[in-house]
Design goal:
- By secondary structure, the chain is mainly α.
- It has one domain: Up-down Bundle (Growth Hormone, Chain: A), CATH 1.20.1250.
- The chain is built from eight helices and no strands.
- The longest helix is centred in the middle third of the chain and has 29 residues.
- It is globular and about 50 Å long.
- The N and C termini lie far apart (40 Å).
Length: 173
């Protein structure tokens, strides 16, 4: 919604869309003060499930948000709340479980692949209808939920005050 749907379908509102998304994620960042008390596994899963649920709502409600700025901005805010939660938890987890010697390399690979695939999908999906594009986004979030669910069931808990030993165990160190 922030970088593709909003600017494409509401081009005169691109700047406010970016501002609202940024402010929303900034405010979600305040949750970081309490994040270590929560289950990292559950927080990641909630973030991905929330993004998936909101993406389904965006797809189903496309006619409504295209015709109503309040509906669009409501969906935008809720989506960015879950995006912020997911980013906060998964970025923290990466730093906890990736071995120090290779953390920069792993981060670079993840960023390169994710940004590269994002750029590719922008070009590959540019001819899709609004309905097809929104359901494509849902499919991408399904993949994320699968990964988050796998970590929830099989990964080590590094939140809730867990020490470095838990993270080292998760990394196999």
């Amino acid at each position: 919604m922030t970088y593709v749907l909003g600017p494409d379908h509401l081009p005169k509102l691109s700047a406010p869309i970016l501002m609202v998304a940024g402010i929303t994620e900034l405010l979600v960042g305040l949750l970081a003060f309490w994040a270590d008390r929560w289950s990292r596994k559950l927080t990641i899963l909630v973030g991905y499930l929330g993004c998936l649920a909101v993406s389904v709502a965006i797809a189903v409600l496309a006619p409504a948000w295209r015709g109503s700025i309040p509906v669009f901005f409501s969906l935008l805010v809720v989506l960015n709340i879950f995006l912020g939660i997911e980013f906060l938890a998964s970025t923290t987890l990466q730093g906890e479980v990736w071995e120090t010697r290779r953390r920069g390399t792993y981060t670079a690979v993840v960023r390169f692949v994710s940004v590269g695939l994002y750029i590719a999908t922008i070009y590959l999906t540019q001819g899709l209808s609004l309905q097809s594009f929104t359901w494509f986004a849902v499919a991408v979030w399904v993949i994320g939920v699968a990964g988050a669910a796998a970590w929830f069931w099989r990964g080590a808990e590094t939140g809730q005050g867990a020490g470095l030993d838990a993270a080292a165990g998760a990394a196999g160190l």
